[in-house]
């Protein structure tokens, strides 16, 4: 790949970085009063999907999720920020790294709570893998 192609790809990656904020309300917590892990994974897949789609502007499907690390519990009554960024690009697949930060509502504190990686495949109208353009 030439330097020019690399720069263009880096620009596409930066342009497709996707951020979603959510308030952690009681409808998304578990009996420990922290964000339910399944809810976190669903939100992570969603932000990863949007990132992959904004990068490729093609039809994308989730094909796998790599290890997901839950490092800190996320208490009810906080705000979370999910950040998706393309981390590698194959022929028809790409990987998106997702990080979830927990933020206090009434203080400027933010720390990383969860991270993971999702793989997406670009598909054509017959749902077959197709090249990422
Ligand atoms: C995604 C899908 C079309 C891929 O079909 P497939 O026949 O397995 O694809 P291939 O073996 O030709 O692989 C295509 C690409 O996917 C990658 N891939 C396939 N399975 C993978 C896996 N489990 N993990 C990571 N990458 C994978 C391959 O490495 C290849 O990458 P490359 O083209 O960048 O080199 C098919 O598995 C599918 O439809 N899965 C269901 C998707 C779905 O319903 N998702 C949930 C809702 S979005």
Based on the model shown, name its key terms.
133 residues, alpha+beta, Thiol Ester Dehydrase, Chain A, elongated, binds coenzyme A
Give an account of the 3D structure.
It is a single chain. It contains two helices and five strands. The model has no long low-confidence stretch (mean pLDDT 96). The chain is α+β, with helices and mostly antiparallel strands and 133 residues long. Strand 4 (93-103) and strand 5 (110-122) form a beta hairpin. It has one domain: Roll (Thiol Ester Dehydrase, Chain A). Strands 1-3-4-5-2 form a five-stranded antiparallel sheet. The longest helix has 20 residues, at 37-56. Residues 61-64, 90-93, 119, 121, 123, 127, 129 line the site of coenzyme A.
Which percent range fits the helix content? 10-25%
Quote the beta fraction. 35-45%
Instruction: Pick out the low-confidence regions.
Output: none
Please give the order of strands in the largest beta sheet. Answer: 1-3-4-5-2
Find the CATH topology: Thiol Ester Dehydrase, Chain A
User: What small molecules accompany the polymer chains?
Assistant: coenzyme A
Cα gyration radius (Å): 16 Å
Classified in CATH, the superfamily is Hotdog Thioesterase
Mean of all residue-level pLDDT scores: 96
The CATH architecture is: Roll
Largest sheet: 5 strands, antiparallel
Shape designation: elongated
Number-wise, the strands total 5
**So how many helices?**
2
Q: Number of domains in the coordinates? A: 1
Highest-level CATH class:
Alpha Beta
Give the distance, in angstroms, between the N- and C-terminal Cα atoms.
14 Å
Order of H and E elements: HEHEEEE
Helix/strand/pairing category: alpha+beta
């Amino acid at each position: 790949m030439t330097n020019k192609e690399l720069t263009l790809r880096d620009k596409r990656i930066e342009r497709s970085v996707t951020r979603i904020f959510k308030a952690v309300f009681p409808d998304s917590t578990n009996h420990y009063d922290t964000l339910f892990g399944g809810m976190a994974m669903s939100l992570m897949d969603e932000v990863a999907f949007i990132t992959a789609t904004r990068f490729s502007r093609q039809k994308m499907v989730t094909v796998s999720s790599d290890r997901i690390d839950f490092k800190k519990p996320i208490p009810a009554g906080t705000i979370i920020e999910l950040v998706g960024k393309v981390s590698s690009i194959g022929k028809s697949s790409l990987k998106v790294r997702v990080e979830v930060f927990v933020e206090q509502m009434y203080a400027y504190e933010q720390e990383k709570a969860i991270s993971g990686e999702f793989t997406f495949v670009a598909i054509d109208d017959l749902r077959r893998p197709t090249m990422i353009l």
